[in-house]
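Below is one protein, fold included:
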Amino acid sequence: MRTFRPIRRRRPARPAHLHTTGRLATLRFRLALLLTALNVVGLAGMGAVALAVDRDQRAGLVRAELDRTARTTKALLAYESGALSVDRLYADPASTGPTAVFVYEGTRTGPRLVFAHPAALPVIAPAVLRGLARDGGERATTVTAAGRDARLLAVPFPHAVTGAVAGTIVVGTDLGPVQDAHRRLGWTLFAGGTVFTALAGLGGLLLARRGTRPALEAIGQQERFVADAAHELRTPLTVIRTQAESALKDPERQAQALRQVVRSAERLGDSVEALLLRARLVAGLREVRREPFRLDQLAEEVVAENVQPPHTALVSTEPTVAHGDPVLVRIALRNLVHNAVRHGRTGTGPAVVTLDVRDGEVRIGDRGPGPGDRPVRRFGTGAPDGTGLGLSIAGWVAELHDGTLRLDRAPAGGTRATLTLPTPPPSA
């Protein structure tokens, strides 16, 4: 009998190469994570040092209090007629305060308890206390009784006449309050460090996003521009190759193919010129000039040069002076007019381009399919309207001049591109 194993679905492989913007976003997250890790390490180290210092300080305070109580009790002991008297211990606050005090007198059979003030000390086995008193020397130790820790200090006292060790004073205190305070400090440091780490991580992420946002936007624009440029350059090259191969196969179509090759070469030359100009500007080899010029005259020249029969142009302009680089503005207007001629018609009929210049705005319209009111950057390569590198360059020129480029639907149908440029200052 055959057994069938279940077929495991393979997970789709992740792309080996991440997008540049994706890598930058990953770098931003890693920077925030690194900052958070450094904060965690630093806070953990400072917290450990703070807890160690607090523990040592509290231990020193406990030892100082025990030593003070033991010395005070030792000074209050007296001998009357050769016998040890502890009467003064009952009236002194040092020996009857919060610190436990036990006085053992040495005898032949062992230490004998002559005074006991347990205070709030947990119940400790008498054998432990007698053991400390039997040793005869100064000794400090920590014992555990009833689940609580206690710190004990044994201090011998001498005989008033012979000077020999006559007994031992054992003082002790409950370490529970001290340990609870130390534990509360630890939890406070942990909670504060956690909140600070979360806030620092969030702040680091926000700072990383804010710091890398210009680079991210610049890289995104550059990649979109490169994608559009690749498409715009590939299209005329493909047309040239196709027409050349067609002319070689059919000699009768050579004249028509050559005309198509010339048009594609012109389009390719315009694209290359725009790309080179943009590269020079980005590299700093050419600066954007700021000078006043007649925007209406420049727009009329561009339309007259690029709208040829059978296409027609309807021009309506007013004397308008703009402030910027006329060379770049000419390239932007030429791209807009080319886009209107190429895609601003229905069917195979000629294009009708409208030009309206007034108040620092150039409106170029056509009667083709309208894109609707959408931002320019959403018109990517491969869109149905055919826009790509031309509109990208036009929008880039508008940004260089602190202007705007808007695409919307014309009132009479079709697409209308509105290029707004700043007007010159009054001094100009």
